[in-house]
Design brief:
2 copies of one chain form a homodimer.
Chain A: E1 2-5, H1 10-22, E2 27-30, H2 41-44, E3 54-56, E4 62-64, H3 66-76, H4 87-116, H5 127-148, H6 161-175, H7 185-195, H8 198-201
Chain lengths: ~200, ~200
């Protein structure tokens, strides 16, 4: 197996942390997003949507979408469990992962791309929508803070992929200067604990 | 168990079709989205993000996010399998489900909300972003068409939740007049086959 991947992207980091938590070593092929390598015909053969990361399996087939890659690897390497170990905890992990994705990760990504026009050589952007997305992301964070005031991790007592998703988006927002509240006490407690994990500092 | 749900929404229909395919009978509580019932404090106790559908479990706890609800029900009622029966097919289902969600379902929803201003009493909208999202949705559909030219269903040989997601978004786009291509031969073949299933016409 090998991973087509781009350094510095929040989705690349999601998979990196997942692999590190599992203790899986994986060969990487860096894809030059800035140069548009992901949009060339050659790359579209492995992912017609032109996105990274993409996992190449041993039979030569390709799997894209970060969470599909992680879930596949969870099946291959069940320990430690990162998607929930019972139907009930798995449901909590899925719910909180999707809340983190739709209400925060995606909003941060749209804010970044539309405010800065980082990819305006290849996509239409709307600065107006970027500002709206930034507000939506900022408004979601206190809801996650309230949740983290009642449980150690986002989906409950156990660390899971929901934490990886929210934390990657949070760190990315700060790195690219999307304006979000940084004074939320439970988010700060949780973020400090995650940052001590070797997988997050790698 | 009972389902808090809103008629006429593509996420409500996703869960409806999933339940019908499984043969699960479920009590419904209709939530008045137009009247903003989902944004009131009472409803936010069951979903702080104010969204439907929400599944109330027998212990009184609540599970939101359509796919979290469906995956939980898949665990409770494994037959027929709608999330893939092996790690490999499950990975394909997850990949195609997410491609359908991120590149089409979400784009259609953003086009509808931002072009029509349907919820402008409660959210900021950008008609400019609505037009961009409409183009993104339209551009994704030929990629799904190419895929459906090489396999019967979106994720392979078996009908799955990926088909439910793509078809609900496709039908919703047409119903609310989001401009998408309707002359794609493989999409049309697939759509005609799905529309004959009792679950889709319910």
């Amino acid at each position: 197996m090998q991973l087509y991947w781009a350094q510095g992207t929040p989705n690349g980091r999601r998979v990196d942390i997942f692999l590190a938590e599992k203790g899986i070593e994986m060969a990487r092929v860096n894809v030059d997003l800035r140069g548009g390598e992901n949009l060339r015909e050659e790359f579209r053969k492995i992912n017609p949507f032109g996105r990274v990361p993409v996992l190449q399996l041993d039979d030569g087939s390709h799997l894209s979408e970060s969470v599909a890659i992680c879930r596949y690897l969870e099946n291959q390497h069940p320990d430690p469990c990162l998607f929930g170990s019972t139907p009930e905890t798995a449901a909590q992990v899925e719910m909180w992962s999707r809340r983190a994705e739709m209400n925060f990760f995606l909003q941060v990504a749209m804010a970044f791309r539309n405010i800065t026009g980082f990819f305006k050589d290849r996509e239409k952007v709307s600065p107006e929508w970027g500002e709206i997305s930034q507000e939506t992301a900022a408004q979601a964070l206190p809801i996650f803070d309230a949740r983290l005031g009642e449980s150690e991790y986002l989906a409950g007592d156990a660390f899971s992929i929901a934490d990886i998703t929210l934390c990657c988006a949070y760190d990315f927002a700060k790195a690219v200067k999307v304006q979000i509240p940084t004074d939320l006490p439970n988010v700060n407690r949780w973020h400090a604990a995650l940052s001590e994990r070797p997988s997050f500092s790698a």
